[in-house]
Amino acid sequence: xxxxxxxxxxxxxxxxxxxxxxxxxxxxxxxxxxxxxxxxxxxxxxxxxxxxxxxxxxxxxxxxxxxxxxxxxxxxxxxxxxxxxxxxxxxxxxxxxxxxxxxxxxxxxxxxxxxxxxxxxxxxxxxxxxxxxxxxxxxxxxxxxxxxxxxxxxxxxxxxxxxxxxxxxxxxxxxxxxxxxxxxxxxxxxxxxxxxxxxxxxxxxxxxxxxxxxxxxxxxxxxxxxxxxxxxxxxxxxxxxxxxxxxxxxxxxxxxxxxxxxxxxxxxxxxxxxxxxxxxxxxxxxxxxxxxxxxxxxxxxxxxxxxxxxxxxxxxxxxxxxxxxxxxxxxxxxxxxxxxxxxxxxxxxxxxxxxxxxxxxxxxxxxxxxxxxxxxxxxxxxxxxxxxxxxxxxxxxxxxxxxxxxxxxxxxxxxxxxxxxxxxxxxxxxxxxxxxxxxxxxxxxxxxxxxxxxxxxxxxxxxxxxxxxxxxxxxxxxxxxxxxxxxxxxxxxxxxxxxxxxxxxxxxxxxxxxxxxxxxxxxxxxxxxxxxxxxxxxxxxxxxxxxxxxxxxxxxxxxxxxxxxxxxxx
Length: 570
Hints:
Layout: H1 2-13, H2 27-39, E1 46-47, E2 50-51, H3 58-70, H4 74-100, H5 102-113, H6 116-122, H7 128-148, H8 151-167, H9 171-186, H10 193-196, H11 199-219, H12 223-236, H13 251-261, H14 265-278, H15 288-306, H16 319-333, H17 336-356, H18 362-372, H19 374-382, H20 395-417, H21 430-456, H22 459-468, E3 474-478, H23 487-491, E4 496-498, E5 518-519, H24 521-528, E6 534-538, E7 554-559, E8 562-566
Parallel strand pairs: 3-4, 3-6, 4-5
Antiparallel strand pairs: 1-2, 6-8, 7-8
Helix pairs in contact: 1-4, 1-5, 2-3, 3-4, 4-5, 4-6, 4-7, 4-16, 5-16, 7-8, 8-9, 8-11, 9-15, 13-15, 14-16, 15-16, 17-20, 18-19, 20-21
């Protein structure tokens, strides 16, 4: 575990602050944390001063503490999910070492780190990595606690599930407990229930997982009904009354993105899972941890595919289980066949990256980015500016990635060809070649994240607004404020919102204190013509913007997919 964590730290933490916040994406979460630092109230979160209840407070509380300790910055904000990713790698490596041995434990932890989807979210300000880390520790502690008859460890694991709910969603409590119950039932070890659901753990999981609901409902009446009915039940059927602008993936797109994010480890994991199912191994008590992990993969992937609402990061909670099955696959079937399959996969990926780097691959590259990037999908539907850089900007990264995959394919091919002549230790080298190949790919993933963030950040417009706007001027944001979530962070100015009720603030917009934050176009027009200087930050193209119908609008600057307008002559 220690070696896996030591390996993971540099790629996760190096140059975390080199790019501005990605907007839409990171900015809103960083701004919520900054406002929490000012208010000190984690049970009344706000974004732009409006009640924000779509996510629990753990991520924001941890970021606010980090801001208070070392200062508010992009690097400080991203250090919180990076630390969570490090914790998830540690949990995965520890559980892998317990069930497979030290070498396989390292491979499992390294596999999680080098899963491109997991690594990307480990350097990105969102609650998903905290959620995944808490789930990984929950399963690790409960499964090893049951194996060793350590009641305190089981209690700690249940508490970790409560922390998962506090990080993102109450499903972090419900889904793992159902999974564990099903695994124990298949092994005929579900009784006594108190062995895997000891009462102190039940109390703690309820306190951490649902206690905050009571406090938030007390501070923000209507929250529970909104979360249970609208944000979960109706959302699963695509029938929300208060929707935001997110555009779901199809079931096939979701599965493809989830497996792509876990590549190449999904290949060895799939082989191990198939062997596990073929042997009906769930009937054997020693296989209980693997039964639970296999069920967890199925619950999340199949459950999400059956839902009407799917986003790319919904597959992230299963990546630690895929990494563990991948390590098992290499231990059980890690001969020439699996190595040759990985060599072919790396060769295909090298060829694909090479083709994507050409002009002919530009259209396909746009399709790939459009499927994996939430902001790209919703911007296309909402008619906003293209939120991604030109494909040509990714070309150096694609070439570097192609070379890394090509080197990996050659190394694995050579290893497989020489397999019969290798010594005993050398025969275990193949997964380490895969790890090394993916470590060479990670810098390109980090650079791609920074490139996208720099391209669509609100920082440029925000700093221009901070330089030009006088204290008495009015600042307006056209469109949901989360599309420019870091506007207040960079400009120091709080905006009123026009055409922004279809938003993560849809619930908060209904509260009395939000009445003067969400404006109708008529009210903006009256102020625009009333002699007061008005600045409009818009994510809408000029021909679709509210300013198209306002006389005397002057474009001050444009950048990051935004336009800054003012109602005064040059």
